[in-house]
Amino acid sequence: MSEADKIVEFVYEVGQLKRLPRAGWLFAGVQNPESVAAHSFRVGVLAYAIAVQEGANPDRAATLGLFHDVPEARIGDIPYVGKLYLDVKVPPEEVARDQVKNLPAPLAAHIEALVAEHESAKGDDHTPEARCSRDADKLELLLQAREYQAAGVTKMERFIQTMQGSVVTDTGKALMDSALRIVPSEWWEAFGRR
């Protein structure tokens, strides 16, 4: 099997994230929730913006955000309520290692490092880029909850409240404050006032 074949197989696997719904939204009553891939896209954009403002490497932060949920192609998106009952013995870093084991070694090493670096933000030993990516992950959930709330889904306050305490960067906190104040449709409603 050629290196190109191995990369294409990996990309097909990652494509599963386009069809994998974010499970927590199903519990909240969202009929057609965003996919893990849609979530990861906006995490990457947010991580880039936060990193620019924080003086971190925006390209690295965005890449961390883009790849952070790649292991979910294999393990699924386990909602918080499920994590209370499951004893997940394999951390995302190990899942990623198994996912990329057939890729060309340099590419595999890069992807493994990305997932590990994002996950490091859960502890004390992390890079500024991991902190930006982690904040972006939390902020994206808050933004999505605000969007579902604006669309009439009533059980969003819990999601919004729990994310507020998990954002740590100054930029992330400022973005969170704005997200709580600005209605999701403001960006396009402003066109009508021109």
TrEMBL record:
<dbReference type="InterPro" id="IPR039356">
    <property type="entry name" value="YfbR/HDDC2"/>
</dbReference>
<dbReference type="InterPro" id="IPR003607">
    <property type="entry name" value="HD/PDEase_dom"/>
</dbReference>
<keyword id="KW-0479">Metal-binding</keyword>
<feature type="domain" description="HD/PDEase">
    <location>
        <begin position="32"/>
        <end position="151"/>
    </location>
</feature>
<keyword id="KW-0378">Hydrolase</keyword>
<dbReference type="Pfam" id="PF13023">
    <property type="entry name" value="HD_3"/>
</dbReference>
<comment type="subunit">
    <text>Homodimer.</text>
</comment>
<dbReference type="InterPro" id="IPR006674">
    <property type="entry name" value="HD_domain"/>
</dbReference>
<protein>
    <recommendedName>
        <fullName>5'-deoxynucleotidase</fullName>
        <ecNumber>3.1.3.89</ecNumber>
    </recommendedName>
</protein>
